[in-house]
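not sure who needs this but someone in the group chat was asking about TonB-linked SusC/RagA family outer membrane protein from Sphingobacterium siyangense so here u go. i didnt clean anything up, its just raw.
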Amino acid sequence: MNPNDIESVEVLKDASAAAIYGSRAANGVVLITTKRGKSGQAKVSLNSYVGMSEAYKKLDMLNGEEWIDRAVEMINAQWEASGTGRLASQSNAERRKILGLADGTYNTSYMYDDRWLEPGRPGLYLINWQDEAYRKGVIQNYQVAASGATEFVNYYVSGNYLNQQGIVKGLDYKNYTARANVEVKPNKKIAFGLNLAPTYSIGNDPGVEGKDNIMHQIYSMSPVQDHPAGTVNVFDNEKYPWSTSTNDPIAKLNYYIGETKISRLLGTVYGQYNILDNFNFKTTVNLDQTDSRSNRFQPYTVGGTLANRTNNPNQATYGSNSVYRKQTFVNENTLNYHLNFDKHDITALLGQAYNFDKLETSSITSQGGYTNSSITTLNGAVATVASTGATQSVLLSYFGRVQYAYDGKYLLSGSIRRDGSSRFGSNTKWGWFPSLSMGWRLSQESFMKPVTFINELKLRGSYGESGNNNIGDYSSIALLGFYNYSSNGLSVSGQAPSNIINPDLRWEKSRTYDVGLDFGLLGSRITGSFDWYTRKSSDLLLNVPSMLSTGFSSYLDNAGEVKSKGWDLEITSHQVRKADFSWSTSFNISHNSNKVTKLDGEQKEILIPSSFDIQHSLLRIGEPMYSIYVVKQDGILTQADIDAGAALYGSQKAGDPKYVDANGDGVIDANDRVIVGHPNPSYVWGITNNFKYKNFDLSFMFQGQNGGHIYSLLGRALGRTGQGSSDNALGFYRDRWRSEEDPGEGRVGKAYSTFGRIKNTDWLYSSDYWRLRNVTLGYNIKDLKLGSQSKLSLVRLFVTLENFWGKDKYDGGVNPESSNTNLSGSSDYPEAGDYGGLAIPKTVTFGLNVNF
């Protein structure tokens, strides 16, 4: 959605206000109102900006010289450990003789490159891969809009073009949007309208974020190479033997194809008939259709590994083409009644809604056979594999609401909604979602008149229920899967059940209590609101273990309960309000905590399956959701620790990581895992200041969060004790343990330690940060004449800086908000994390707004 088309945004936090939306309110409700024409002369506006973005932060990695120093240390340690009489001081020539190798040959486990020790590193390239990958990306945006209204017609139309280069080579995005909001009122009884919002976008992403994708390779790639950055496969079957095995990531950014084209149409048609002056019927039909086509291609020029840079189309090439169409059709019909008499005000709503979702997918993939890198069509491949899929679901709803106000002081509202979802079991498709709220405007009471500094004071309370049906379309019924089996020595394909049927699978429900206070002080010089809430989510939709005799390890069931509580505070103050100068400040902060109170049957905890054999989180009764559950690291082992009988992980020695023996059995193993944090921040906050002086305006916003943790798999990949010498390492390896006399800063053990694979707090980071999100300086020129017949009602020039200043504690990645990889091995436990994410963009833009 184009931000220039938005008139207002309202977030419904009140439990009762959100409950009328039933299952749609499971994750909260945001109401976006788009612009409409206003009566009077037609208006035309032009809005544009151009700017440039670059990486706000780069990951601190070892440079080429530091990598060589670490690699030499690790290779020497391996050499010393490989046999008696083998010394780190022995040259490559001596090692070659001991190993019986021919002149000019190397065993890279025990020998280093002679050029590492020569001045200038002849024939080698010391590469900063991040500098090679990141760039300054240009962004352009242009919008034109026209609006107006007469007694019978109201219209708003707009068009927008966005062209954005990513901050990494190969990332680009173009977006074309349009909007038409038209309403016609031929008489006082009838009104009908049409809202259309088509969009078309073209995105290019060669596969940048996520595990083993290009940014992961950028960070981990050896900074010492014998080819420059960007080298493609040039029939050179030699690789730098001490390097990471993956191929050149800059070449991948330059030559991988990852194009996605998306067309989307949001359309709404509605009609309203006023049966009486205070009683009307409204029907609305909505269509949301998305068509996507993705084309991906990996040519042999960048495929394979450094060990195989020759033309090998049967192994090193890859192509795919996938399309999907997603359609959502919604029909909503409502009766609205409003009655006002004496001091009483009553509104009533009765409605029905039908929601139909359909998804169709198809894809073709290929491996090998592209002998010409310029021909990317799939018919150039040796073989292709095709697949198709289709799902659909229906949500049927009935709802009603009554709101009552007496004298504007006493407010009462109640609603009821009944939703039926095709996703649930045959016995439990329907759910009831009631709500009730009350309000008391104390500031209008006579006893508050003497309290002159309070001009607005409202106390409110609410209770509401909402439902969650966020599961697969066919999760409750029996599905068939395709399997291969052996028959008479032949592989035969067949079908068999792929899940356990659950006809009693039902709605997950959340029950929320909310108490709030709205206030205005000193003639509304200070305004704000405070909300305290508690929420109980029951019948959680979770995968639970099943009896092995069923043939399945788990099935989807209603199996848990979570309680959460928190509060929100918003305050706006107007420090200065004068004709030529004003200054206002808005501040908000929220706090939330949760804990698991129930699991399936007698279960006390569920270990979350991992996609990467790094099982590090769990659901445990009495603890927060997705608590991080690992062994604590407590510095670096000394010989004194070992002599004193410290618990060891295997045959650890001085300089290896020191772990906490949590259960006191004298051995470090998985039984010593403890809860060390959770991913959800305890506090999220923001503060905005707005200044106006004559025709100038200035605003700046700070935002941040505190109290959460990141268990970074990217940090693990780059900083774990025991990783090989070929990978690069995080910058804090400069201060590693080298000896008892030179123990470093105590965070990192010896470079050649092999005892860091146990899941431990070495990869645990704080997600705290604060950031100057936005600074905007503008200048307004009003009523600028363009001659005797026309004038510009407003010309505004502005410059905006985004993400130019801030601080975080996450040195295992570039963005504490990164969410690029599903860490869980099960879609039923969605747990996003960082395994090779992009930096956030630091952007400067110059803009112009013109209103006619």
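also The two ends are 24 Å apart (CA to CA). if thats useful
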